[in-house]
Amino acid sequence: MDFVYSESQRMLAESLERLVQSEWTMPKRRARQAQGVVDAGAWETLADMGVLGLTIAPAYEGFGEDPSSLVPVHLALGRGLVDEPVIPSAVMGAALIAATDNEAHHAALLPGVAQGTVVLAVAYQEPNRRYHTRPMSMHATAAPDGYRLTGLKKQVWHGAAATHWIVSARTEEGRTAIFVVPADTAHVRVIDAPTFDRSRCADIVFENAPLPHSALLVDGRDADRALATGIEWGIAALSIQAAGAMQRAIDLTATYLKDRRQFGQPLASFQALQHRLADMLVAKEMALSMAYVAVAALSETDAPRRAKMISQAKIETARAGRFIGEQAIQLHGGMGMTDEMEIGDYFKRLTALELLLGDTSEHFRILETLA
Prior knowledge:
Layout: H1 7-23, H2 26-35, H3 40-48, H4 70-79, H5 86-98, H6 103-115, E1 120-123, E2 139-143, E3 146-157, E4 164-171, E5 176-182, E6 188-194, E7 200-212, E8 216-219, H7 221-259, E9 261-262, E10 265-266, H8 271-297, H9 303-331, H10 343-353, H11 360-370
Helix pairs in contact: 1-4, 4-7, 5-6, 5-7, 7-8, 7-9, 7-10, 8-9, 9-10, 9-11
């Protein structure tokens, strides 16, 4: 896969960088996060720039870019800690739907995702199941007019912001089925909560929620494969965003060391601190290299090899993110622990990224099964 930016990718990256610098400053970003809902203006801007329709096929009003286009876009979003549900909706949700043969749902949902009028959230985690993707306690039972969903989905990333949830459930035959559930469906409760990095997640309770036959997106082994595809795309984009956040954390730290003086000279002049910055930069480059591996994996046809590449990238992203975040806080000294310093936002996000879409232990488990 060629990761050299095309002219259109370069222009989009530059436009996004300018947008992030002006609209995702710390005060503006925190003000939007404090609202607890997706800012309509920011979301519309991302849609107008093509971010939401980037990899959606032109037939569904997207741009049909290949996976490599994730790199310039999500690096910029990561540098700005852009918290809008781009990955849950435009990456994970869109990839999951596109991985099925359900043309009706393609036509009904993907144009809205590209335009920003449809926001998707993938609901697959269940209580006491950690990161396992096979549904066990969420049940779908047949009814004369369609289906009934009963169960609880945990920690749905931006679940309260979604117009539609993509929900995995266990059928009466013990098969996996995936449903598209509108957020206004009856007998559904959403328990929204902030996470410690100022993002949002939700628990969604389905209490015999009625769905028509048309709500079924895919079932059986095809459902398992589609869900795996959505998660893999999410991890790849997340890895790229993490690399962008790491670079910004390094930049903030370097600036602080240049401005802060001790013994009559800038902290940046001390060789020991220069070495620590260099170690942070090396860790970021390792994480970015593995993020490229994750993006390349999206075009890999061999499923075990693809899963191995994705898990390796997620492990390295978590390791580097934790290291860079901790080093950045330490190099800021006591100031790094205060809420007034932006570096704390990056530390929290890099720490939280390890827990999204499978933590390090989970991905080591996956690698063990593939060995």
